[in-house]
Design a protein that fits this description.
It contains 13 helices and no strands. The chain is mostly helical.
Length: about 300
């Protein structure tokens, strides 16, 4: 297998792993924020081993950008996990993938980096698709589909903040070190949110604990696989390939929970996915952080 083919294989596998996240959240038998707490907490030991192992960069001290990344990541998971509970798995996963559009829009409005015409087409398609997915919900998926869609859509903003903070942190540190500190910061934040909202913190059965452990392992290997592949593939190829994630999530939602998509939702999801592809293929406006050694510029959710 060629190096390029191996990188593509790892990327597809990592995207499939990340597609498990919304399914595992629903199976944890805890509150949504508590599920995020266990995802972070149970990922830390493995992240510690990978970061502090002989020959690795080591833990060092966290920068302000690593701490800010942890804050945004905690907001990201809090809203996303509640979105998963309130709407369908497919909606929650697809809507949060508007992150590339938000990042580029931020660069345009704040950094004065004007995007090209292809991005403007992508933005229009994304907004139309997001509206179609929210308006087309059947009302039978999740406890509050419309609010869940809005929460999931807000995740694109929080994850964009996480992405930009990680990008700055990556100028002085490797991907695994940044991920470790962001995850560590997220543990008390997610735990505090769960306690403040009075959520169930402990799974009731062994199956619930297994789902929590699965979230932690998925957090490490899903992010790690994407980060590894990002250092070996063009950004455009990586961005398109990672869209396997919402497809896997939708298929698992149908298989595990019997979720269905209305025709309008399916059309909206297709528009959103097409918009993400177009946005990633347009001229980049946010420069990527340079990779350090063999690590990649960022970690994925």
């Amino acid at each position: 297998m060629s190096p390029r083919a191996l990188a593509l294989f790892v990327l597809v596998l990592a995207a499939c792993v990340l597609g498990l996240a919304p399914i595992l959240v629903r199976l944890t038998e805890t509150g949504p924020a508590a599920a995020g707490f266990w995802r972070f907490a149970l990922a830390l030991p493995l992240l510690f081993v990978l970061t502090a192992r002989p020959g690795a960069e080591g833990l060092g001290r966290p920068s302000k950008w690593m701490l800010l990344a942890g804050l945004f990541f905690a907001l990201d998971l809090s809203f996303w996990h509640y979105g998963i509970v309130m709407t369908s798995v497919a909606n929650a996963t697809v809507l949060c993938n508007l992150t590339p559009v938000v990042v580029t829009l931020f660069a345009w409005m704040v950094l004065k980096q004007r995007p090209d015409g292809l991005f403007l087409v992508a933005l229009a398609l994304a907004l139309l698709g997001a509206f179609a997915m929210a308006a087309g919900a059947s009302g039978q998926q999740g406890s509050n589909p419309l609010l869940g869609d809005l929460f999931s859509l807000s995740v694109a903003v929080w994850y964009s903040g996480y992405f930009l903070a990680v990008q700055r942190a990556r100028t002085t540190a490797g991907a695994m070190r940044v991920t470790f500190w962001a995850t560590l910061v997220g543990v008390p934040l997610m735990g505090g949110v769960a306690l403040l909202l009075g959520e169930d913190m402990m799974p009731a059965t062994a199956a619930g604990w297994a789902a929590c452990v699965g979230l932690g392992v998925m957090h490490v290997f899903g992010q790690g696989g994407v980060a590894w592949a990002l250092g070996r593939l063009p950004a455009s190829i990586t961005a398109v390939t990672i869209l396997v994630q919402p497809i896997v999530a939708a298929l698992l939602g149908w298989w595990v929970f019997g979720e269905t998509l209305t025709l309008i939702q399916a059309a909206g999801g297709a528009l959103v996915l097409a918009a993400i592809v177009l946005a990633q293929r347009s001229r980049a406006v946010v420069p990527a952080a340079p990779p350090s050694n063999s690590e990649a510029p960022r970690a994925e959710r």
